[in-house]
């Protein structure tokens, strides 16, 4: 079972939410997970309804069955100083580097160094052990950059290892790549059942495979419940339109109060309601095609339904339960 | 505060004004930014302007629809548009590496250019790590504007989280170029020397060691070679980046923040609005994509669900209450007022509704989720009502998130674009989006031209007031 779960997906698919739900799901039954944010959005803090996360691993949730979820918003500059401290014991030099603008250079301008630091920090958390030799975190879940950038993001250390062919940077980059390319890592994609996100998912998977990075599963998010199918809408619109209108009228009358339950209230509603039903079936047909495309990827697939009122903490726990039920925790 | 207190963003006057030379679309990923840029470009061209659309990373089919699926970094004329107004549409997709290479080739002599292009450090940098895309988008925009071949440039910003990073490009480049780090890099011989020490004001033994130790001798040499080779070009980089930055601040530029009516997207939109104000960039308004409407908005979600329950013989207390007279409104009113905090209370007995989160087994007596087996008129009518309730919940949620944005930024005009059931990937689709974007509210215009979206909104308003439920949407 993988220990580093990288969650990517097209913008707007709910990547951060799914990453958080996955962290909760994997923490259930007494496990400990670390949820890592790399894009500086503080999306995790907002989801868990806490204040902005500092650059510090902090417990943010208790999972069902006593597990714990820790969260960390990785800051590239802090990570660099950390890294300098850890590998080179360069306390004072770190400050000196900052003074001459080297830290700025490293974290914003130097190619990929930012990504090196972010992936490096996540891999460090994966490998970290306590005094008894046990892994500190059973799982690390990373809310990663979107599909279009994730392969490059994860593969940055390969590039760096090629640039710095010897020395500590080379060794560090190699070590990170060993974790990322091992079965310890799984890269998951979040998608909606819409054409563009499904297409991007399949492109992203092809890219990952070409780079030799391990593909995990596909999480289909915001699935709508099927309420009426084509035949039903057809029947309601044509053959049985009058009966349906009568039934509507009757039901609204029964449930309406006094004056508002007047006759004729329902008739003007029939056409708009039918129109909405047609849009619904069109949407279902689109989802069906998307589902078939996802199935062709032959990967473990999980489905989460749309939370009609938006995601809150309770919704997050429901999503986590559902992911567990669908076997995400193995 | 409702959205209607925000001014409506009138798109056509912006597009038609010959003084508008640049439109920049920014926003978080997945909100339809590229589609919006393409639709605006098409609309402006069909209204007679000579337009070029610069896209960063379009979805394949959208690119194909504009004939720019070839990544050759040159604007291509888009065929198939209506040219009767005398306009033209060109489009291009940014090729980062090529843009970077071209700058090098244009600003360095042949030998130096070759040295740069072959430098491994340069090759990684130009292939597009975080940040490069933003610089190159700025650079390309500057180039296009300088050519003066088009009267309108529509730019789509990179899909990164910090889509406004490109605004930082000149500053960052500047602080790097003025910084001491580059001088350290360029003067390795001085490292450890007295001049260097004086210059840096830090002990050089602290400096030279770490750099070498950290980067490895060979990488440090590559970087130094690169920086030395680029030296003569840096000034030019900076001058152009500064010029582009000023261009963006000029009155001929219109920024559009693009969002969808979702919490995260609108939170990002608010950030963009604040950021643009801080940089004194001219914001034209907010484009809100994928807004849902309903022609039957006067029928509330609560009432639709209650009626659906009545039709399918829901046996819960809630449903029984509904059979009584006069209790309904009070009950559903309470349910409605709770929905903002606890979505679960809206439909306590409805196991198939979307906010229950996940498929659940149908409770006995309730309508089964999924497609009803039996096609009785009652079942069909109940299905229509449930769908409507779902739609109304979406509407209410969208209204709440929009209201939150409007409360924060009442000064920002908003253009709403009604949701389409499918994806857009041809010119006809882009044209339809353009029409929705530019929808006018002018009451003097003939009815037929009043866009559907707005009509829906009016009906919603009427419907809410009629049902006396408007205040429910005000839940914080």
Automatic annotation (TrEMBL), chain A:
Taxonomic superkingdom: Bacteria
Single GO MF descriptor: ATP binding
Signal peptide limits: none
Coiled coil start-end: none
Domain ArsA/GET3 Anion-transporting ATPase-like: 5-180
InterPro entries: ArsA/GET3_ATPase-like, ATPase_ArsA/GET3, P-loop_NTPase
Pfam families to which the protein is assigned, alphabetical: ArsA_ATPase
Protein name, UniProt field: ATPase
Organism of origin: Streptomyces cinnamoneus (Streptoverticillium cinnamoneum)
Automatic annotation (TrEMBL), chain B:
Gene3D superfamilies linked: P-loop containing nucleotide triphosphate hydrolases (3.40.50.300)
Domain ArsA/GET3 Anion-transporting ATPase-like: 20-293
Top-level taxon of origin: Bacteria
Native source species: Streptomyces cinnamoneus
Lineage: Bacteria, Bacillati, Actinomycetota, Actinomycetes, Kitasatosporales
Sample GO molecular function, one term: ATP hydrolysis activity
Protein name: Anion-transporting ATPase
Coiled coil: none
Pfam families: ArsA_ATPase
InterPro entries on file: ArsA/GET3_ATPase-like (IPR025723), ATPase_ArsA/GET3 (IPR016300), P-loop_NTPase (IPR027417)
Region (Disordered): 316-375, 435-476
Biased composition (Polar residues): 346-355
């Amino acid at each position: 079972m993988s220990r580093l779960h990288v969650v990517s997906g097209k913008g707007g698919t709910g990547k951060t939410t799914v990453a958080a739900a996955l962290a909760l799901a994997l923490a259930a039954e007494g496990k400990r997970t670390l949820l890592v944010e790399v894009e500086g959005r503080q999306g995790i803090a907002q989801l868990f309804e806490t204040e902005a996360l500092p650059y510090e691993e902090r417990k943010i949730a208790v999972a069902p069955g006593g597990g714990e979820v820790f969260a960390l918003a990785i800051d590239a500059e802090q990570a660099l100083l950390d890294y300098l401290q850890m590998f080179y014991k360069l306390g004072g030099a770190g400050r000196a580097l900052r003074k001459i603008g080297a830290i700025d250079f490293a974290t914003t301008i130097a190619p990929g160094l930012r990504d090196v630091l972010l992936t490096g920090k996540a891999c460090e958390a994966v490998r970290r052990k306590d005094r008894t030799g046990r892994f500190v975190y059973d799982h690390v879940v990373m809310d990663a950059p979107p599909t279009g950038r994730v392969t490059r993001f994860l593969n940055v250390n390969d590039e760096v290892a090629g640039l710095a062919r010897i020395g500590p940077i080379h060794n560090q980059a190699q070590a990170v790549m060993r974790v990322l390319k091992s079965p310890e890592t799984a890269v998951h994609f979040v998608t909606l059942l819409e054409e563009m996100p499904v297409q991007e998912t399949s492109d992203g998977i092809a890219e990952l495979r070409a780079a030799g990075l391990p593909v995990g599963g596909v999480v289909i998010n915001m699935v709508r419940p099927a309420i009426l199918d084509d035949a039903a809408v057809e029947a309601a619109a044509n053959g049985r339109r009058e009966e349906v209108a009568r039934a509507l009228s009757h039901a609204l009358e029964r449930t309406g109060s006094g004056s508002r339950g007047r006759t004729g209230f329902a008739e003007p509603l029939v056409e708009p309601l039918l129109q909405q039903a047609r849009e619904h079936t069109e949407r279902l047909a689109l989802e069906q095609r998307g589902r078939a495309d996802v199935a062709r990827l032959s990967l473990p697939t999980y489905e989460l339904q749309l939370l009609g009122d938006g995601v809150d903490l309770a919704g997050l726990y429901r999503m986590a339960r559902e992911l567990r039920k669908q076997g995400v925790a193995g | 505060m409702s959205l209607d207190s925000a001014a409506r963003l009138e798109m056509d006057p912006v597009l038609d004004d010959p003084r508008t030379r640049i439109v920049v679309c920014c926003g978080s990923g997945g909100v339809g930014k590229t589609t919006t840029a393409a639709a605006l470009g098409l609309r402006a061209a069909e209204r007679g302007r000579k337009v070029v659309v610069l896209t960063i990373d379009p979805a394949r089919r959208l690119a194909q629809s504009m004939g720019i699926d070839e990544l050759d970094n040159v604007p291509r004329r888009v065929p198939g548009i209506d040219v009767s107004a005398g306009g033209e549409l060109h489009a291009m997709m940014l090729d980062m590496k090529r843009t970077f290479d071209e700058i090098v080739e244009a600003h360095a002599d042949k030998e130096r250019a070759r040295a740069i292009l072959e430098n491994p450090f340069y090759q990684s940098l130009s292939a597009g790590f975080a940040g490069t895309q933003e610089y190159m988008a700025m650079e390309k925009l500057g180039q296009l504007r300088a050519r003066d071949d088009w009267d309108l440039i529509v730019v789509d910003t990179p899909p990164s989280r910090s889509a406004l990073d490109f605004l930082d490009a000149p500053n960052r480049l500047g602080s790097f170029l003025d910084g001491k780090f580059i001088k350290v890099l360029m003067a390795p011989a001085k490292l450890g020397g007295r001049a260097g020490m004086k210059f840096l004001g830090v002990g050089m033994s602290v400096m030279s060691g770490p750099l070498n130790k950290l980067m490895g001798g060979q990488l440090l040499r590559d970087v130094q070679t690169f920086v030395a080779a680029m030296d003569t070009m840096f000034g030019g980089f900076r001058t152009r980046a500064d010029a582009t930055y000023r261009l963006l601040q000029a009155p001929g530029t219109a920024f559009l923040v693009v969002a969808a009516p979702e919490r995260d997207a609108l939170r990002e939109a608010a950030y963009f609005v604040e950021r643009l104000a801080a940089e004194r960039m001219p914001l034209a308004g907010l484009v809100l994509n994928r807004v849902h409407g309903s022609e039957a908005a006067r029928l509330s979600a609560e009432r639709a669900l209650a009626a659906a329950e009545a039709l399918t013989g829901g046996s819960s207390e809630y449903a029984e209450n509904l059979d009584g007279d006069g209790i309904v409104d009070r009950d559903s009113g309470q349910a409605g007022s709770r929905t903002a905090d606890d979505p679960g209370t809206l439909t306590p007995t409805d196991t198939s509704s979307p906010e229950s989160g996940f498929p659940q087994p149908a409770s006995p007596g309730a309508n089964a989720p999924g497609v009803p087996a039996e096609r009785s008129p009652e079942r069909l009518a109940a299905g229509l009502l449930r769908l409507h309730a779902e739609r109304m919940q979406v509407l209410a949620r969208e209204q709440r998130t929009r209201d939150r944005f409007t409360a924060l930024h009442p000064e920002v005009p908003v253009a709403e674009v009604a949701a389409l059931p499918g994806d857009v990937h041809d010119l006809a689709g882009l044209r339809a989006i353009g029409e929705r974007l530019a929808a006018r509210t002018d009451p003097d215009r003939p009815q037929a031209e009043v866009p559907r979206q707005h009509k829906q909104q009016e009906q919603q308003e009427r419907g809410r007031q009629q049902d006396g439920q408007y205040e429910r949407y005000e839940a914080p």
